[in-house]
Write a structure and sequence with these properties.
Blueprint (H helix, E strand, L loop, with lengths): L1 H20 L3 E6 L1 H4 L2 H6 L5 E4 L7 E14 L5 H23 L3 E9 L2 E3 L4 E6 L3 E13 L2
Parallel strand pairs: 2-4
Antiparallel strand pairs: 1-6, 3-7, 4-5, 4-7, 6-7
Length: 146
C-alpha cells in the first residue's frame, strides 16, 4: 500500500511541474532604450550598424544571412531587464559575425523565435520560459558600396 501511495505522490508532483516547464510568455519591448544604454555601447559598440525591420539602409552587397540565438537566466532581474540583456548579447553575436564576414552593417534585423518572424523597426520580441528568457534575431550582413 505504501508503494501505491508513493507512486501516486510522484505522479501528482510530476503533473504539477509540467505546466511550469511549458511556460512560454511572449513579450515585445521597445528597442531604443537598449540601443541607447551604456551596456550596449560597451558590449556591442559601433563597428557595425544595425537596421531593424524595414528601416532603409544604404545600398550595398549582401554577404550572408545569420541567426543569433541567445538565452539567459533571470538571475534576480525582471523579465524586461533579462530580455534587454539578452538582446544585447544577441546583437553582440551578430556584430562579431558581421565583423568576421567583413560586413559594415546588419540589415533587416528581425526577431526570429522558432523560425517565426516578428519584424519591427522599433520593437523586439522576447520569450520567457520557466528558467530564463530567449531572444532570436535574424539579419543580413551587408558591405556598403564606397
Amino acid at each position: 500500500m505504501n508503494m501505491l501511495r508513493l507512486a501516486a505522490l510522484v505522479l501528482v508532483c510530476t503533473a504539477m511541474t509540467l505546466p511550469a516547464a511549458a511556460r512560454n510568455d511572449r513579450y515585445t519591448f521597445s528597442l531604443q532604450p537598449t540601443l541607447d544604454s551604456p551596456d550596449f555601447a560597451q558590449q556591442v559598440g559601433s563597428s557595425v550598424k544595425f537596421y531593424f525591420g524595414d528601416q532603409p539602409a544604404p545600398a550595398g552587397q549582401n554577404i550572408s544571412d545569420y541567426v543569433a540565438n541567445d538565452r539567459q537566466h533571470f538571475h534576480g532581474k525582471t523579465e524586461e531587464g533579462a530580455c534587454r540583456d539578452t538582446l544585447i548579447s544577441a546583437l553582440e553575436e551578430l556584430q562579431e559575425h558581421a565583423n568576421h564576414a567583413g560586413a559594415d552593417a546588419v540589415v533587416g534585423v528581425v526577431s526570429y523565435f522558432r523560425k517565426v518572424t516578428f519584424s519591427s523597426a522599433t520593437e523586439f520580441e522576447c520569450h520567457a520560459g520557466s528558467n530564463g528568457v530567449f531572444v532570436s534575431l535574424r539579419g543580413t550582413f551587408v558591405k556598403f558600396s564606397k
